[in-house]
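Page 42, continued from yesterday. The earlier attempt failed because a stray header line got pasted into the input along with the sequence. Redoing it now with the clean sequence only.
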Amino acid sequence: MSTKLIVFLLIVMSPYSVIAQDLTQYEAVNISTIGIPKVLMDRWGAVSADIDENGWPDIFAVKWRGVMGSQLYMNTEGMFHDIYGDSPDLLEVEEAQNATRINIFADYDNDGDKDLLFGGDYDLFLFQNNNNVFSNVSDQTGVKGRGRPGFVSTYGFDGGAWADYDLDGDLDLVVCQTNNQDFFFFRNDGGIFTDIAEDVGLKGENPLGAAGDRGAYSARLQWIDYDLDGDPDLSAGWMLFRNDDGYFTEIAKSIGLTPDSLTFFQAWFDYDNDGDWDYFKLIHGSDDPGENSLWQNQDGHFVDKTSDVGLYGWRPHLGSSLNIGDYDNDCDEDIYIQINNHVDIDVLLLNETYGPDDHAFGDVAAYSGLTTVGDRKGATMLDYDMDGFLDIYVSSLEFGSIMYHNMRNSYNWIGLKLQGTQSNRDAIGTLVKVYTGDICQMRYTRVPNTWKIQDNQFIHVGIGEATSIDSIVIRWPLGLKEVFTDLAINQYHDIKEGDATSAVAQVDASLPSAYRLEQNYPNPFNAETSISYFIPEESFVDISIYDLRGQKIISLTKKVVDAGQHKIKWNGQSQQGSTVASGTYFCVLKTEKFNQLRKLVYLK
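This time it went through. Structure tokens are written below.
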């Protein structure tokens, strides 16, 4: 166990610790009291999504193998009822397919309810939602799989993900299949889908694992705008395909992202709140030769930070899901891992900040009430009672269902329910930044999260002890940027893209709503680096460089500047014109109302 992890656990267990006082507690709800019966069946996977768009997240309890079908629990103000039996097309297909491998809800036709993409052992299907009855429209839409030629009989459809890759306002679809080196890439043209995998560079790009079943290789599909350039890139296990004007190029190794190929689950999130996406990889189980690893994004290059965050050598048993969220509402996102065996409890890795660029994760599940053991496979994160604290639903053969209710703490939060108007209605591919003081938190909407797991798409952001939001910046999928201020905390807000009648008025996105000093780029640097900063009003600004001893090296700006975004450069020289030594320096922004610093690294 690393020193940092030991220190973390000592702090958590201390009766005098602020962390201990505000550690989120969970209780296992008696599911019958919220309308979920105890249905015993083989399960793997779970989905939460507002399928009927009534403002409450619903649950799809996914079967694994056998003849009994899944359940679809619709949520009305915290009470659930199963409507799965209302869809005979779906019942017929799921029984014939044996295993349910793909289970993704998204509004492909932009009509205001969520449709179902279904993949099984033998074929792929698209079901259209009509008043919560799901009808098979695979033939009409062209979303059809196909088996491999010859004697190969195993060709299950293992993974899929939705995004508007070409930014035309509708959702397109990528799918991977066992024993098939070609991805399916279905472009959506008015509800008719065409497989264009060869045209976009994804033909022959799907590596095969043992017996053709990639499993822990590339089936963990999800979309992420990893480079923040406005278009979605495709993450496929240990591979990353960059989107360049609709053509995809695999670049993982070229940017330093080199986890081993056994990638059972993956997640992209900004664990250190520095304004870019980091990457976490979970191995298949304790017997795998690889390692769990956390990769920090440093100006587009990825560095393995597993040891630095206290997770080196950490090898829990087989995980069945990976769910990222701010479970304790303390301004950073934590990691929940649902463990698939009968004797070990699940894992809740709490993310704690100890100083600038200094984070550690420690498992607090045993202290948070996540202690159920027995047969269970897969979980989804949702706020089922809409109280602003993230709950966890777990699929189970032994218990039917497990609902962990978050008992809350004293921290504040804010939530958003987004609706695209020009962009896709689900607003998949939206970037959200929430500013409170000197903290900026990012969220990115995507479906699904990983294999067989889809978390509720509502934006949820914990803000800790902050009592207000400075601003929220939303970049919609088609590029419109809106800034919202004066949003009430501790409630969810319905926000439509570009709608002046929205619950929140649109404001001029060209002016910042808060003071902010950005991280310099590049960093580390040699010849020169750029430093951007944002001023919401005319202010006297002092920006200076200091060394580690606190001695001023140079003043870069010391004057009154107009409101807006500004950029300055530093060439690594002192006020006297001499070149500084290689090492770490601090850039400090000072105004009458605001101070902030950033760490810079200069290399000769």
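Notes: Residues 9-21, 500-509 have pLDDT under 50 and may be disordered.
Reminder to self: strip header lines before submitting.
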